[in-house]
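Exercise: predict the fold of this chain.
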Amino acid sequence: MCGISGAFQITHQNVQWPNLLQDMATALAHRGPDDGGIWFDAAQGIGVAQRRLSIVDLSPEGHQPMFSADGRYVVVFNGEIYNHLELRKGLEGSSAVSFDDVNKLGWRGHSDTETLLAAFDAWGVEATLKKCVGMFAIALWDRETRVLTLARDRLGEKPLYYGWQKDAMLFGSELKALKAHPSFRGEIDRDALTLLLRHNYIPAPYSIYKGIYKLPPGSYWQLSVAGALAANSSSGRNGVLKAYWSAREVVEHAQASLFDGTEEDALEEVERLLAQSISGQMMADVPLGAFLSGGIDSSTVVALMQAQSTRPVKTFTIGFHEEGYNEAEHAHAVARHLGCEHTELYMKPDEALAAIPRLPTLYDEPFSDSSQIPTYLVSGLAASHVTVSLSGDGGDELFGGYNRYFWAQRIWRKLGWVPRPLRMALAGGLTTLPPEAWNGAFERLSHVLPSRWRYKTPGDKLHKLAEVLAVKSPEEIYLALVSHWKQPGQIVVNGREQPTALTDSGQWANLPDFESRMMYLDTVTYLPDDILTKVDRAAMGVSLETRVPMLDHRLLEFAWHLPLSMKIRDGQGK
């Protein structure tokens, strides 16, 4: 795990490459406190930098930037390739590989970075990316063709920003690395502000700054120096963006050929795939643990970790003194049952407040998920014991866990036939009481309410219900549920809301039911741009690597083959 950065300069005669690259790398030192390196070719106007958090192959043989055996490729790499030993076996049997004379196999160390370089050399960029199982952000320079490739993992676990500022093309794991470059302008993109008001985050490919973009998950971007220099060509500067994996294609194909086995068969295959993912993600030469909330997803991950470990798994939980938000008691019970080495921290108001000044330096651009605070605190707790922590993120999107998946359809079936004026009047009645008052009323009546009405924070849910009562279609219900400002273009001066996968129906997957469409949209929007962003920045801010076993693409692809009835039934998900 690490932070990567670099620059391509059209005008590079007077560039002080060592100072420039060191500044960019230093901005990412929290992502890689163990080691760092730079490489540049002043004649070609290209330079790359890396900061390393040593996880696999702690020796100097894992140092980056790293060169391929034949010297053609230079790479800086953030992430982990969990199947890299399998890739090595494939490479060793490939006549396309030319090994050096270090030993019979030509491997200098056992890092996945070295495996990646050999694979790029043997199979090319796209074929290699398709073979990789892992999370990654990669910058690869081909010294022969003078092509820069930037690549990102399928689901967007690892971040990568890039874009032109004046005559420099900059890239980095976080915006702060780009800001360290003297060409960086930092002009606010008002259209991105409108997206922030809609989503509570700025969705890919946009960033808060004009000209700077997030590389979309499952894609790679290539810049040819010849094309960029040709008469100062603007089209050449745009580079070429390609998808090597498409969530839309995966889900559409899966839904066209649904799993026809029994529920027992499905359970067995899900367990096999998740155990396989966890086995690969427990690969580390440093201490490893897991976040444990006590919910279904994190408990399942920890249970399968413990089944594969000869020692108690180290688990970490943040607790709250507020009853409606506290999951620590559940986590403690799960950890005790599984025999884990459990650590918990009950968050106090002053600790939450103390974390707030740190947030702008973690996220670099506006980010409004309130759970970023406990995520940062639990990451700090884990980092004091381990270097790697697994999480249960992704289970809700794959297996129908969010309340909105069954609420929205249920609401529409029951209320869609009711005239809109009447629904709007009902919405007004629900909002006459604040959420806290509803919470108190439900708590007083909890002993007489049926279990299906015993929600956490029911007042918040009733206010969300009020927001959707006046909609015209189930799709509008979903948009209302996930929108934090309904008409953001009316708020930002000179701002215009750009289309995204959430608001542009042309980007939606062709799926037969509304619940699946919601799960798909969450997978390509909320998951990478909110959940995974939150976890990455919070954890890397304290030099902790996080891994997400639920997002192994092999598990995801199988999950989409499952019929909806195996995920959502009788108002229950997962």
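Check your answer against the key: The two ends are 31 Å apart (CA to CA).
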